[in-house]
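An example makes the point: we print one protein in full, the chain in one-letter code, the fold tokenised, without further comment:
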Amino acid sequence: MFNKVRLLLFSFILAIISLPAISQEYSRIEAFSFSIDPQGMSSDTVQSSIEYFDNSGNRTRMKEIWWNNGWYTKMQYFDTSGFLYRKTLMINDSAYYVETTYELDDRGNIITEYTKSSKGENFIMAYKNEYENSMIKAAKMMFINRDKEDKKPPRGIISYSYDEYGRLVKKDEKFSDEKDISTSYTYYNKGMVRTEQRKDHLNDKEFVIEYNYNEDDKISLTRTLSADEVTSVTSYSYQNKLLVRQETALPDGTKQIVMFFQYK
């Protein structure tokens, strides 16, 4: 059951990450969610998210999660091209604070990741990107400090594979401890993602997400499977082509998360 709940929460996190794009008619999205037990009562976790543009077109996303023992706030800052250039995490009213900023190469891919925390945990992750036919094929990762480069071998290598249409079909993340994460994608004829398969040997997880779309090519239903067993199902409801409700549940009815969206 614990693994089922973890996959359910992972499906919900994916949904948070892929909040609907704000059209020019709206400058703000508000999302609120809560989990429900089998008796229909709200459980101990509540989440909210706000996403908005400033006058220059830069986007900010704020997510808050509350539970019995505390809460945390996650902020994400995007530029006008949609790149995430800064993020922060605050737990229990600044008791613990983490900030990460990014530097890009001239093709828009990360080359340096700077992280610092309120506990003095500062480090830099450097990426050496390799390209082929303008597509990124590999990124070598290594930790460096602020004074000198770490002389140890790269901490990991990320490699990318594409199909004949330039669509990403596989992403492999291999780490120096011989653990790896592999993510594969298949597509419908229109180009939308059909399946996403993730083999995470770092955290000992493996699952597949199946995507279904409505007549407007918007996601209508996703199913998450582990060992050929459905672990969660998420449905999406729209009004005027805008996502207004998202509902994720375990098939056995032991857990449910409902999210509502408002546009302003």
Q: What stands out?
A: DSSP finds one helix and 18 strands in the chain. The chain has one domain: 52-237. Residues 52-237 form one domain.
